[in-house]
Design goal:
The chain has about 220 residues and is of the alpha+beta class. Helix content is about 30%, strand content about 20%. A hairpin with a 5-residue loop joins β8 and β9.
Length: about 220
């Protein structure tokens, strides 16, 4: 009986090793991982800046809330933030003319002589928000306050506006005013501006502007 021998297989598997495409894939994956890590770090840093901005806003809320009770008491300091009235500057006396009725020998009326006008006392006016803010900014705890996005002092703005990215880290304070009975809405909200009087209780809302200048509400409080 003849033995049939099987010829060796010519399809033996040979490992060619890693190709250029494999190395390219590994490099791409490394770049993706590095990008994800970088985005995560940046997001974390931006989140911390937003939290620091909120802490600035919380410090404003704390001071204004504490002052809301005491500022109606006599002798409150700073006086510019008190709820009372203060006198305006007295007007400078002006000279008026008065007819001196002296007849000369010829029967003619004499010349007009000047007479000083007595100034009337100025009517007191309420303190304004602008004057109060100026004094608050002079306090040590507010002098050292820093906007984490800019490294400078945070600015008080009328509102956060995403159209203006330079507002990031700013502080916006708005006031709520009750509308007349029967109105469609119970209150209206508007920016608290420098000329607003602060002689009465104010219902305020404070927000901070995030990285995109979108408002983040911190608190509603009374001042």
């Amino acid at each position: 009986m003849e033995t049939i021998s099987t010829p060796p297989s010519e399809d033996k598997h040979v490992n060619p090793g890693l190709s250029i495409a494999d190395y390219g894939f590994f490099v791409l994956m490394a770049l993706v991982v590095a990008l994800v890590v970088w985005v995560g770090v940046m997001s974390f840093e931006e989140g911390m800046k937003t939290e620091d901005s909120k802490r600035n806003g919380e410090e404003w809320v704390a001071w204004l809330t504490q002052a809301s009770v005491k500022r109606f008491e006599p002798g409150f300091e700073p006086a510019e933030c008190a709820a009372g009235l203060h006198a305006t500057e007295a007007p400078i006396p002006t000279a008026t003319t008065e007819l001196v009725l002296e007849e000369s020998a010829g029967g003619e009326v004499g010349e007009q002589a000047p007479k000083a006008e007595i100034p009337k006392p100025a009517a007191p006016i309420p303190n304004s928000w602008g004057g109060c803010v100026a004094k608050i900014m002079e306090r040590p705890e507010f002098k050292k306050m820093v906007n984490p996005f800019t490294g400078e002092a945070p600015q008080l703005v009328e509102k956060c506006d995403p159209a203006d990215h330079l507002l990031h880290g700013s502080i916006a304070i708005e006031k709520s005013v009750a509308t007349p009975v029967g109105s469609a809405v119970p209150t209206t909200v508007s920016p608290l501006i420098a000329s607003d009087a602060i002689d009465t209780k104010l219902q305020l809302k404070l927000s901070v502007c995030d990285k995109g200048a979108y408002p983040i509400r911190v608190s509603d409080f009374e001042f």
